[in-house]
Every structure is written in structure tokens, then in C-alpha cells.
């Protein structure tokens, strides 16, 4: 028998095949005063259930299963506060809906939502959506979403920690805003894998973690593998930290800070297997101000199966107001480090990096209109074609920047070791 808090009987037959929506909603409503409804083990076939403020709905982890009989969200709230979901398995039965970026679990305009120890699966919606809400999603398993495992929009302080997100059609975790602004979401210690790009495009889909217009976001200590595009992709962000992540088998650029970003710190990540390693580019759209340090980038592919425009692999690339320091780059069938593209180069410092087993060690743009760069104290070992070169777009202008320094007074090349 299912019971509310303090032993109040609610309804029997949790394994009934019939639609239990009315009974479950009545049980939730009747438990408002106690603030907690604990569901027993079993299968509950239901449609949309709404939760009130100050309420906890819990189940037996791995044994309490809510199965969707309809479309649109199965569980959630709007305009409420202090809600907890815990220990529930939520099965969407493969159904979708018409709600914009709707989730199988969907909260909108809610404060302090906690979702923990839940399994969310098998939906043509997002797995979990938090719209204009705050709270935590922790220790959950989300998989089998046609769209995004976890979608956060216009967040008001969300923590996403210790979750496993797998086999989603277009994205793992997305943190987006309608307009650029402070967000403060923290994404830490999650495992993300098997992210496809079912709806196509050239980077808006297929990412393990995607941050769009959301400022002050921290992405740390995640394990991200087998994404069709990027493990971590930033678009139009400010003051973002990407630190300590392990990124394996990325179909395009593994960590990408693009378009009108400023203030990206990309540090101490491991990238093994990608079409390109780390990119901090699009100065033409205002992308600038980045630190890239302490990363390992290795074993890059010869091209990208998902983005044919990326046909020349590179380890690390930056264009404006950037420091690339103390990184290790190895086994790249292209360039180890590139600074600038055509005239889009300003004040890039490349120092203290170890570059091994690449076609070209370091490439700096010397095209007309390109700005300054400094290449100092790097070690380049086993460059198959050239150690340090100057380029203008696709054209090789100098095959020996160190030996032709007088040609390019805006480029400082000093103290590098090659062998």
C-alpha cells in the first residue's frame, strides 16, 4: 500500500496497468500539510503530475518507477519553491510534446529545486529542464533523450553535480540564456557520453556541455566522451572556467570558446582523441581574452566526420589577447599551436609549451593587418615539416620564423628549443 507521511493511507496497487494520474495527484495534494509523499517500489502509470511548494516526492531508488502515458512533461512545477525529487525512476515511454524545450521533468520559474538520485530516460523531450529556476541536480542518471539530457535556461544559480548523462540525440548538458548575462551555473563531476547531433548543424548540436550567452559558469572535473562535436563548447560567454575535465573522442574541436566570448580560462584538462584540441577564436566577432594553460592534448584525428570544414587538425588555437602556456601537445597530423587567422591576431603569447610529433610546431599569422605575438621558451620535438612558420590565411609566408625575425618585427621569437 502507498502511504503519505505519518502513515496516512493513499491508494493501493502501485503496479496497476491503469492510468493512476488522478490517484497520484490526489495523494500529492493530500500530503501538502506534511510536505512529503513517499512512493513504494513498483510501477505507476501516469500522466502529468504537478508539485506544490515545500514538497518532497520520493521513491525507492531503482524500484519506484513512473511511466508516462501521455506527452509533454510527466513531472514538475511552475512558480513554486523548495521542491525535492528523490529516488524516482521516470520513464517517458518515448513520447514528446509541443512545449518549447520541454523536459520529461520540467520546472519553470521555481526556486530551490533539488533533483537527486533519480533516473530519467526514454523521452523525445529533454530529460530534465530548469527554466528560470535555481537549485541542484545531483547523482542522477539521464539517458535516451532525443534532445538534451539536462537543459538549463536563464538560470538563477544551478549546481549540476555527479550525474551520468548518456546517449542523447543532440546534447548532454546545455546552459543557455535568452540574452547574455550572469548565470553562475556550476557543472562538476559529471560523466557524459554518447552525444549525437541528430538535428544536424555545425556546432549547435552534438556537444557534451554547451554554454550559450551564460556568464560566470564553471565547468570542472567532468568525464566527457564520444560526442559528435565538442566535449565542452562555449558561445558568447564571459568569465567562464573550464578546468580539470577529461575529454575523450570528440568529433570536432574538443574544447571550443567561440564567437563573442571574453574571459575564458581553459586549464588542466586532458584531451585524447579529437579533430582539434582547444580553440579560442572568432576575433572577427569579438572573441578575445583567454588563458590556456596546463592542458594535455594528444592523438588528434586527420579530420572531422561531422564538420568537413575542419580539415586541418591543430592542438591549440587562439586569436586575440590570449596566453597559451605550459601545455603539452603530442601526435597531431597538423599544427601543434596556431596564433591568428588572416588579420585576426592581437597580442597572443605562446610560452613554455612542449609540442611533440606534429606536422608543424607553431603557426603565427603574418597576414596584412595581423597584430603582435610572442613565441618564447617553447620546446618543439619531431616536427615533420616545419618547427615555426608564418602564414597568411592558407599560404605559407615563412617556413622559419626564428631565422627570419627581421621580416616580422611584430612577432617576437626567442629562446625556443627545437629538435
TrEMBL record:
<dbReference type="InterPro" id="IPR022388">
    <property type="entry name" value="CHP03808"/>
</dbReference>
<protein>
    <recommendedName>
        <fullName>Right handed beta helix domain-containing protein</fullName>
    </recommendedName>
</protein>
<feature type="domain" description="Right handed beta helix">
    <location>
        <begin position="126"/>
        <end position="283"/>
    </location>
</feature>
<dbReference type="InterPro" id="IPR022444">
    <property type="entry name" value="Cofactor-bd_rpt"/>
</dbReference>
<dbReference type="InterPro" id="IPR006626">
    <property type="entry name" value="PbH1"/>
</dbReference>
<dbReference type="InterPro" id="IPR011050">
    <property type="entry name" value="Pectin_lyase_fold/virulence"/>
</dbReference>
<dbReference type="InterPro" id="IPR039448">
    <property type="entry name" value="Beta_helix"/>
</dbReference>
<dbReference type="InterPro" id="IPR012334">
    <property type="entry name" value="Pectin_lyas_fold"/>
</dbReference>
<dbReference type="Pfam" id="PF13229">
    <property type="entry name" value="Beta_helix"/>
</dbReference>
Amino acid at each position: 500500500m502507498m502511504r503519505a507521511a505519518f502513515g496516512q493511507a493513499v491508494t493501493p496497487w502501485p503496479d496497476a496497468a491503469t492510468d493512476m494520474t488522478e490517484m497520484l495527484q490526489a495523494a500529492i495534494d493530500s500530503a501538502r500539510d506534511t510536505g512529503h509523499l513517499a512512493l513504494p517500489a513498483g510501477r505507476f502509470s501516469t500522466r502529468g503530475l504537478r508539485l506544490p511548494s515545500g514538497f518532497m516526492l520520493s521513491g525507492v531508488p531503482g524500484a519506484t518507477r513512473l511511466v508516462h502515458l501521455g506527452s509533454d512533461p510527466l513531472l514538475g512545477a511552475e512558480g513554486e519553491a523548495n521542491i525535492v525529487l528523490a529516488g524516482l525512476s521516470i520513464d517517458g515511454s518515448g513520447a514528446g510534446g509541443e512545449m518549447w524545450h520541454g523536459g520529461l521533468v520540467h520546472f519553470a520559474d521555481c526556486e530551490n529545486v533539488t533533483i537527486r538520485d533519480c533516473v530519467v530516460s526514454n523521452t523525445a523531450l529533454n530529460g530534465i529542464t530548469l527554466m528560470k529556476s535555481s537549485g541542484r541536480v545531483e547523482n542522477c542518471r539521464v539517458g535516451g533523450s532525443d534532445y538534451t539530457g539536462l537543459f538549463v535556461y536563464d538560470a538563477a544559480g544551478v549546481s549540476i553535480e555527479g550525474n551520468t548523462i548518456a546517449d542523447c540525440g543532440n546534447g548532454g548538458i546545455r546552459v543557455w540564456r535568452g540574452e547574455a548575462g550572469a548565470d553562475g551555473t556550476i557543472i562538476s563531476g559529471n560523466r557524459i557520453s554518447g552525444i549525437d547531433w541528430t538535428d544536424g548543424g555545425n556546432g549547435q548540436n552534438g556537444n557534451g556541455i554547451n554554454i550559450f550567452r551564460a556568464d560566470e559558469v564553471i565547468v570542472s572535473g567532468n568525464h566527457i566522451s564520444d560526442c559528435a562535436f565538442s566535449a565542452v563548447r562555449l558561445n558568447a560567454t564571459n568569465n567562464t572556467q573550464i578546468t580539470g575535465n577529461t575529454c575523450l573522442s570528440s568529433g570536432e574541436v574538443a574544447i571550443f570558446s567561440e564567437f563573442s566570448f571574453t574571459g575564458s580560462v581553459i586549464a588542466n584538462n586532458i584531451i585524447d582523441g579529437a579533430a582539434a584540441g582547444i580553440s579560442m577564436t572568432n576575433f572577427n566577432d569579438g572573441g578575445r581574452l583567454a588563458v590556456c594553460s596546463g592542458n594535455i592534448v594528444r592523438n588528434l584525428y586527420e579530420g572531422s566526420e561531422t564538420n568537413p570544414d575542419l580539415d586541418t587538425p591543430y592542438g591549440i588555437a587562439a586569436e586575440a589577447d590570449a596566453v597559451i602556456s605550459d601545455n603539452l601537445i603530442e601526435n597531431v597530423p597538423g599544427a601543434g599551436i596556431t596564433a591568428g587567422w588572416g588579420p585576426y591576431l592581437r597580442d597572443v603569447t605562446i610560452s613554455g609549451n612542449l609540442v611533440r610529433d606534429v606536422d608543424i610546431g607553431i603557426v603565427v599569422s603574418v597576414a596584412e593587418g595581423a597584430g603582435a605575438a610572442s613565441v618564447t621558451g617553447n620546446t618543439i620535438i619531431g616536427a615533420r615539416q616545419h618547427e615555426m612558420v608564418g602564414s597568411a590565411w592558407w599560404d605559407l609566408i615563412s617556413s622559419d620564423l626564428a631565422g627570419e625575425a627581421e621580416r616580422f618585427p611584430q612577432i617576437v621569437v626567442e629562446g625556443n628549443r627545437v629538435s
